[in-house]
Acetylglutamate kinase (Gracilibacillus dipsosauri), 270 residues
Amino acid sequence: MNKKYVVIKCGGSVLEKLPHSFYQNVVDLQKQGEWQPIIVHGGGPLISKLLKQTGVPTTFVNGLRVTTQEVLDVVEMALSGSINKQIVRKLVEAEGKAFGISGIDGGLLTAKPVDNKEDMGFVGEVTNVNTMIIKDLVEKGFIPIISPIGIDESGERFNINADMAASAVAQSLGAKLCYISDIPGIYEEKNGQKHIFHQLDQVKANQLIDLGVIAGGMIPKVQSAIKALHQHVLEVSIIDGIEPDGLWQFMQGKEIGTRILLNKEGKSHV
Ligand SMILES: Nc1ncnc2c1ncn2[C@@H]1O[C@H](COP(=O)(O)OP(=O)(O)O)[C@@H](O)[C@H]1O
Ligand SMILES: CC(=O)N[C@@H](CCC(=O)OP(=O)(O)O)C(=O)O
């Protein structure tokens, strides 16, 4: 029987605040057997903190970190070292079996420089996902935990935005995709009040990006979500990691956070 996968992207914004129930939800999901969870994680705030401590300046263009060789060393240390192993340990605490792996290992994520008008340095986009590695880990009973560093055929490393990496992994597996972040959903502020969009289609999402309502780290999230829906991804939502059992509710089909759609009729596929 073909396995069904759900790619869960954990944002650095929320990693330190995730309740134990989040990790328990991931482990319970795997034990239930219908959907196989795969975690792709970020870690932007830790990278920024470490860069600040070492006195290395950092800048972002449309939510992507301009990455010099010096920045790249810190990015890899934070993502493939600290954060990846922290998530493995949290899942073990929840009595799960987790296997941490970076996109470099086994050529899991091959990458090329991101297509951008500005010079972004070593910022990459995924060109291929070696799904065999993921499927083998899942087959052996592990929850794969992926850090978003990519590699090219010459052995060059790339810093990949975690939202984009999660989208590429979900596309390669025809999975569901769930972005876990630090906000209750995508919102618009009117008269000092935040109004959450429970659903957002691609036309409206692009308008909100143009208007600057969707900004910063939310831009790669929304753009990756739309790309994923065009490429066999079944469903994409952005949900609050702090919401108790949020992941569980998403998997039960409950309306939670913001669901991204391709068109107003609510269809995910064109
Ligand atoms: N319209 C919007 N709705 C919700 N969040 C937004 C919006 N525009 C920008 N953001 C920002 O995007 C952030 C989430 O992106 P990011 O910081 O990259 O998180 P993560 O680490 O979870 O990927 C939110 O904390 C918020 O500050
Ligand atoms: C190219 C690029 O921007 N890479 C990101 C990778 C980490 C990330 O995406 O972390 P969040 O999910 O917490 O934002 C960065 O350097 O911050």
Q: What stands out?
A: The chain has a mean pLDDT of 94. Residues 11-14, 42, 44, 181-183, 186-187, 213-218 surround adenosine-5'-diphosphate (ligand 1) (CB under 6 Å).
